[in-house]
Amino acid sequence: MNGTIRTVVVTFIVIALTACASAPKIALRPEVKQSIKRIALVETPEPSRYFMDPGQTPGGSALYMFGAIGGAIIGGVEAKRYESATTKFTEAIAPLKPELTKTMLTILEKGLLEKGYDLQRVPPPPRTKDGKEYDLSKIEGGFDAILIATLTGGYYVDSDKVSPKVSVSISIYSRSGTDVVFADTYLYCSRKIGRFVQINPDPKYVLKSVDALYEDISIAVEGLRMGAGKVSERAVADL
Fold first, then answer.
1. SS3 state at 185
2. Are 120 and 40 a contacting pair, CB within 8 Å?
3. How far apart are CA 90 and CA 100, in angstroms?
4. pTM more than 0.85
5. Burial class (CB in 10 A: 0-12, 13-18, 19+), 49
6. Could you report the per-residue pLDDT of 4-63, keeping only the tens digit for each?
7. Beta strand pairing call for 38-42 and 145-158
8. Sequence-ordered list of residues with C-beta below 8 angstroms from that of 134, at least 6 positions apart, any chain
9. Overall fold of domain 23-57+87-237
């Protein structure tokens, strides 16, 4: 597969699987947990977009018989379909203010306070020079650890159903920001994916078609909020 073809195919795969990308899984060791009393909870922003994975176009897999070129063609087609579907879905639910991250942070804060942690929300620090991560050294305060929770949410077509998928990745860093002492990803999703912690969605939010979803888009918003809440509650249980 040449560089151009590989780029097209890989780009599509990255777009389609953003919410389920590989992530580390690090258990919180008992001795580390005992040393953590005061936690800085970074107020991560709401997703800029809510994805809609329309599933593969009917008959599209036939192009794979043409090898790398066929794969590149179907990759480009599917990426465009994904982009178009995501834009439409985002524009439909954004006016209803899903506030998925707000839901997540509220439940994390409440749950961790109830478990006896001294927790304080802090604004996101500046990014590192490469822009890929937060510069945790810029967070001020006498904290023992820093918690970063990132969320993605949307719907996907799965056979004859349209299901919600909310992914929350939790990372707890040492005060220096250099060591990850806990990491896991929680999915509100009907599919089991890798080692991620999975929670099956409420059947009322699993719809029979994309058309049914758009007939009452508020159901989708409710489903995503429910997902944000369920995965956050599950994360608290592990901390």
1. strand
2. yes
3. 13
4. no
5. middle
6. 333 333 333 344 344 344 567 899 999 999 999 999 999 999 999 999 998 865 544 443
7. parallel
8. 42, 124, 125, 126, 127, 128, 148
9. Double Stranded RNA Binding Domain (3.30.160)
